[in-house]
Amino acid sequence: MLKIAFSPIYKYELPEKHRFPMIKYELIPEQLLYEGTVSEDQFFHPDPLTEEEILWTHDAAYWEKLKTQTLSKKEIRAIGFPMSEKLIHRGRHIANGTVQCALFSRQHGVAMNVAGGTHHSFTHKGEGFCVFNDIAIASNYLLHHGIAQKILVVDLDVHQGNGTAQIFQHDDRVFTFSMHGEKNYPHRKVPSNLDIGLPDKTEDGPYLKALRETLPRLIDDVQPDQVFYLSGVDVIYSDKLGRLSLSLQGCRERDEFVLKTCKANNLPVAISMGGGYSERLAHIVEAHANTFRVAEEVFF
């Protein structure tokens, strides 16, 4: 059974200017339930991360500032959200959702978080709407407990995963792979183990060709026993922040290739949703919903 992390706290009400497209976190489950792709019993509600689990990834000084709401104005601007205790609490639930998805993926092959993909969060700071780095936290959880020995992060959000790259830059147990828009945010990129920067307006054909030529080779070279997949849909043509030009079908084919490749190699894969900022909310929900549909088709 496909297990999906989702909690009502994911729907935390931000100020109006940040409201869109965050409403997607409540619409994606509604759409999947309405069309019958999933059922209520597939959703689980993650508890918040413990402080100990946070500190396996993030610096104590950064965590203290979050906990006591003492980030500087500059640090808050870099994150992009107004700070509150509720926002931090929400982030702890979402990050633990990815931890639990990793554990479920080792039972069922795949598991998915309706949120997550907060790859611009560093060891010591947050930026780009990212407070905690959920994939890094989940990776360190598996490594700490000896559940995984070698992890591959497949980051296909349109923005380069600078925070994840920084966190694991000296840890050869985690291989970070990011394929993204070369000229897009962040403008100062922290090198991943492998970065593929794509030109503006890249369409389905060149995008999928690059992915198909890279991922199987990476799996052969890295020999991971766990995959984390950041399936951002800000790669599609209608995305306000994306600058690439994938169709909805091309984005779905991307997901299908990643998941079929993981299954063919008997690799458990935990999926975080990442970004999506199209003008039409329907495009965001449809693109994200496709990832869940593909997971059901490929694994179940």
TrEMBL record:
Keywords: Hydrolase. Residues 20-290 form the Histone deacetylase domain. InterPro entries: HDAC_classIV, HDACs, His_deacetylse_dom, His_deacetylse_dom_sf, Ureohydrolase_dom_sf. GO terms for molecular function: histone deacetylase activity; hydrolase activity. One of its GO terms (biological process) is epigenetic regulation of gene expression. It comes from the Bacteria. Coiled coil: none annotated. The keyword Hydrolase applies. This is Deacetylase. It comes from Phaeodactylibacter xiamenensis. Belongs to the histone deacetylase family.
